[in-house]
Specification:
This is CTP synthase. Keywords: ATP-binding, Glutamine amidotransferase, Ligase, Nucleotide-binding, Pyrimidine biosynthesis. The chain is an alpha/beta fold. The protein has two domains: about 1-285, Rossmann fold; about 295-530, Rossmann fold. It is built from 20 helices and 20 strands. The strands form four sheets. A nine-stranded mixed beta sheet has the order 13-12-14-15-20-19-18-16-17, with helices on both faces. It is globular, with a radius of gyration of 25 Å.
Length: about 525
């Protein structure tokens, strides 16, 4: 197995996840099979209990794993299906070591960070790297590992030491370290400063790891003298200093890396030049160029609880982007805090109330994504009511589906709480092949999508709701859980218990997001007719 390790220096939030994903894309384009591991040094065992405000979206995998949003980037960029084991956390490592200690597996030895924790990290990385994620048999050629946080953080020290040992044990031809750092520009002089990166690399080297490549983040392209200074003081060849400057959209990043021959430097370090092919990124080039040239936009009202941090809905935003580009449109998202639509802000915060309702009324379609707790529910119900009564295309996801049921029932629908979260990929059976959802999925029988919910619609009220006009067109395999609802008298009013955004990919948009955008432009009927006729 060949390993590419991505570390970060100077500051957090430099885009290591996008860098790691883009490097994976370039290596895939060279004909190699790629898998990914994200290391999160926090003590949580997974991201399931984390607040979206603090850590962004919780991404859900097919096997039910609740993981860091960077794994969503990996899946979208590389078009792979990862497992919960692909997200390694301090919590998981310590838990496994302590479990072994309680069982007596260490035969009475003193259990320490070195060697027991570091050995557990190495063993976990080497085992996970062998798991196939691209639908083919056998392990991948290259495993891209992203180490979360910043070099020098106390919490990541055991991982740094474990990765140092791993680099030594696998040999220099099987390990490539890429350090992502910041090149700031200070003051009116506008000089690109290399000192923060020099210090970051020095700290990394002091910990026993030497970068083979530098990926330098900057607002503008790096100047030649900046590159030479970095090369001289960081002991990295000038050809191996990559510049990831700001670009119009992230689909340019693999192209940026390819244009700087990043693949050649990585393949040379990993001794893979003889088996790799020249990178074929034609589809990526088309996608990036198409997005750059779009002029027409569609206004989407996103009515949610966590709109203060857009990363809370990262997969929803990406799914909207994929669907809009398929329709030759740019997404123009109006973020509406659900609580601002409620009656109380009309008195306490009239400006926020007026702005929220103006955004909702100006939207061409409405989306209510998932969430937990009752804050903002009244505002979401008002948004669903507005969309239903004014024939505005509506898509409710998870909580958004339950909101549409409550709103339709007027007095509110009773729901019951399951004993545990329902997580991972589950099958939904369509009750009729004539429903809009089955036509969009191009499957009259079923669809497999990922779930993350605890509440469900009470089956006792289904009959009353269906008599009133709401149709539950998708159910689980027991027939008791309501998975998809539609309002046949409406241009597009769909609620789903699952999360279709998690399986949306560039060039392969989620069927329901595509339906929402098509309906917003009045093109849904024509699209469905074309596809029914096989064209």
């Amino acid at each position: 197995m060949k390993y590419v390790l991505i570390t970060g220096g100077v500051v957090s939030g430099l885009g290591k996840g996008v860098t790691a994903s883009s490097i994976g894309v370039v290596l895939q384009a060279c004909g190699l099979r790629v898998t990914s591991i994200k290391i999160d040094p926090y003590l949580n065992t997974d991201a399931g209990t984390m607040s979206p405000f603090e850590h962004g979206e919780v991404f859900v995998l097919d096997d039910g794993g609740e993981v860091d949003l960077d794994l969503g980037n990996y899946e979208r960029f590389l078009d792979v299906t990862l497992t919960k084991d692909n997200n390694v956390t301090t919590g998981k490592i310590y838990q496994s070591v302590l479990d072994k200690e309680r069982k007596g597996d260490y035969l009475g030895k003193t259990v320490q960070v070195v060697p027991h924790i570091t050995d557990a990290i190495k063993d976990r990385i080497e085992a996970v790297a062998l798991i196939p994620v691209d639908g083919k048999e056998g392990p991948a050629d290259v495993c891209v590992i992203e180490l979360g946080g910043t070099v020098g953080d106390i919490e990541s020290m055991p991982f740094i030491e474990a990765l140092r040992q791993l680099s030594f044990s696998v040999g220099k031809d099987n390990f490539c370290l890429i350090h992502v750092s910041l090149i700031p520009v200070l003051g009116v002089v506008g000089e690109q400063k290399t000192k923060p990166t020099q210090h970051s690399v020095r700290e990394l080297r002091a910990l026993g790891l030497t970068p083979h490549l530098l990926a330098c983040r900057s607002a503008q392209p790096l100047l030649d003298n900046t590159k030479m200074k970095l090369s001289q003081f960081c002991h990295v060849e000038a050809a191996n200093i990559l510049n990831i400057h700001d670009v119009p959209n992230i689909w340019h990043i693999p192209l940026l890396l390819r244009n700087q021959n990043a693949h050649h430097s990585i393949l040379k370090q990993l001794n893979l030049l003889s088996i790799a092919t020249p990178p074929d990124l034609e589809a990526w080039s088309r996608r990036a160029e198409t997005f750059d040239n779009l002029t027409d936009s569609v206004r989407i009202a996103m009515v949610g609880k966590y709109v203060g941090l857009t990363d809370s809905y990262l997969s929803v935003v990406k799914a909207l982007l994929h669907a809009c580009i398929a329709c030759s449109l740019k997404p123009s998202i109006d973020w509406i805090a659900a609580s601002d639509l409620e009656d109380d802000p009309a008195q306490s915060a009239p400006e926020a109330y007026a702005a929220a309702w103006k955004s909702l009324r100006n939207a061409e379609c409405v989306l209510v994504p998932g969430g937990f707790g009752d804050r903002g529910v009244s505002g979401m119900i008002l948004a669903a009511k507005y969309a239903r009564e004014n024939n505005v295309p509506y898509l409710g996801i998870c909580l958004g589906m339950q909101i549409s049921v409550i709103e339709y029932a007027r007095s509110g629908s009773r729901t019951h709480m399951g004993s545990t979260m329902r997580l991972g990929s589950r099958r939904t059976l369509f009750q009729t092949p004539d429903c809009v959802t089955s036509k969009l999925y191009c499957n009259p029988y079923y669809v497999d999508e990922r779930h993350r919910h605890r509440y469900e619609v009470n089956p006792d009220v289904i009959g009353v709701l269906e008599e009133a006009g709401l149709k539950f067109v998708g159910k689980d395999e027991t027939g008791k859980r309501m998975e998809v609802l539609e309002l046949p008298s409406h241009p597009f009013y769909v609620g789903v218990q699952f999360h279709p955004e998690f399986k949306s990919r560039p060039g392969k948009p989620s069927a329901l997001f595509l339906g929402l955008i098509l309906a917003a432009r009045g093109k849904l009927e024509a699209y469905l007719t074309r596809h029914q006729n096989g064209s």
